[in-house]
Amino acid sequence: MMKVVARMIGRSAIAAALLAACGILPAQAQEVVFIPNRVIYPGETIGMDALKQVTLKPGKIIPPAVTVDLQDLEGKVASRTLLPGRYISASSVREPWVVKQGASVQMIFISGGLMISAAAITLQPGAAGDFVKVRNIDSGKVLSGTVMADGSIRVGAS
Predict the structure, then answer these.
(1) C-beta separation of 101 from 124 below 8 A
(2) Average per-residue pLDDT in the chain?
(3) Model pTM?
(4) pLDDT band at 13 (very low <50, low <70, confident <90, very high)
(5) DSSP structure class, residue 90
(6) Is residue 32 within 8 Å of 68, Cβ to Cβ?
(7) CA Rg, the chain, in Å?
(8) Distance, C-alpha 147 to centroid of its chain
(9) Angle at 94 between CA 149 and CA 101, to 5 degrees
């Protein structure tokens, strides 16, 4: 009985492959990844001209933490050297800096209805949502805050 079932499964798999080859059934989807087509250096913004779309061979497994979506790569900045023909790991790219180190920024404190703003200098670069240190220009006091999308730094009560 088991031999008959095994023979039927084998035949149905062959039939499905033949039907897919003839275009009657859809073929299995193949994985597509984007890899560099040239060396991309740290700090360089990744554009479409630096990437190549590659379709993997059937059965090839993409390693974990590899970036496969174009939206996760385009416009990002390389945090390490990306070599041509190699997978791009998620840890190898970052968001572009919203504030650069040494830039003059507005530091904002908001609590309830109270809002206080002061001029500050960033002590480290940061993308939107990053936690960075800033120095108040008037007092010289160093504070930590979150980089906002508009380039201001939001500080909180400590």
Answers:
(1) yes
(2) 83
(3) 0.66
(4) very low
(5) G
(6) yes
(7) 26
(8) 18
(9) 60
